[in-house]
Design a protein that fits this description.
Blueprint (H helix, E strand, L loop, with lengths): L15 E7 L6 H11 L2 H4 L3 E7 L3 E6 L2 H8 L2 H5 L2 E4 L7 E8 L4 H12 L9 H7 L1 E6 L6 E7 L2 H8 L3 E4 L2 E7 L49 H5 L14 H11 L8
Antiparallel strand pairs: 1-3, 1-4, 2-3, 5-7, 5-9, 6-7, 8-9
Length: 267
């Protein structure tokens, strides 16, 4: 998802979250969840829980309405004595997308232009060396034979804020729109969000058109029928829309999870 509009910011939810992991790395997230739910009673502790989701290494992310609710969870000594550890969730660096970068420019030329033409007055205490060592090209997008391409760059929160607020970046002779980049990966094998097809662990494919398991979207024999969202069908939600539709509730939920996993430092 690329946020459009002048000086628009992606803003994460203000919910507080905590990560809970088992010390025994053979335990699953479901087992961790069962342990937590046996110990923690939200009604007795007056907790306002916004959500619980499973993560890797047998862990859980629990989101609460306030930091006070989170403190109550962290102070629950029975969790630690039951073989669980409580940590703040690890957050990723933000990513920005710079649109319409001349494809003829080398990566180092683009990065030098971003610093020299856009940042020297915005972050005067940051040296070019510090800037170049703190950013990383995630990937490029666009047609291979096009004159321009898009740069998706991983940056620290301070640099992200200084660049996004400008709305456009000057790169050599080109003025390039810049936006937050929060596109979530959808697996084209199982049609779920959060991983790519090459790492998918399911055996049979799911069709992205009819939503049924057992055949690919390309091999679907129901293409004349109204499409159904495979992602929403799996979670038994209203599915009368295309898989991957911008307004799909499952897609929006995945985007929100991604946004809230990023360290925007309150930007």
């Amino acid at each position: 998802m690329v946020k459009k509009g002048s000086n628009s910011f992606v803003r994460p939810n203000t919910f507080s979250s905590v990560a809970i992991y088992p010390r025994d790395n053979t335990k699953t997230s479901d087992e961790t969840k069962n342990i937590v739910q046996k110990i923690v009673c939200p009604s007795e502790m007056k907790l306002k829980v916004r959500g619980v989701r499973k993560i890797g290494k047998g862990g859980l992310i629990i989101s609460t309405e306030t930091k006070e609710d989170l403190d109550k969870l962290k102070k629950t000594v029975q969790l630690a004595s039951s073989g669980l550890t409580i940590d703040d969730p690890q957050k990723r660096k933000p990513r920005i997308i710079v649109l319409g970068v001349p494809a003829s420019l080398a990566e180092n030329e683009v990065f030098n232009c971003i610093y020299d033409q856009n940042l020297t007055d915005k972050l005067p205490t940051m040296t070019k060396e510090a800037f170049l060592t703190s950013i990383k090209l995630s990937h490029k997008s666009g047609r291979k034979d096009a004159e321009n391409c898009n740069y998706i760059i991983e940056v620290p929160a301070s640099i992200r804020k200084a660049l996004i607020v400008q709305d456009r970046l000057f790169v050599n002779w080109t003025s390039c729109p810049v936006r937050d980049f929060t596109l979530v990966t959808r697996c084209y094998k199982c049609q779920q969000y959060g991983h790519a097809a090459k790492t998918c662990k399911v055996a049979a494919p799911t069709c992205g058109h009819c939503g049924e398991e057992g055949h690919t979207t390309q091999d679907c024999t129901k293409k004349a029928d109204t499409p159904k969202c495979a992602t929403c069908l799996r979670f038994k939600k209203p599915a009368n829309h295309k898989t991957g539709d911008p307004e799909c509730p499952a897609k929006k939920s995945a985007e929100n999870r991604y946004i809230n996993s990023i360290d925007y430092e309150g930007a």
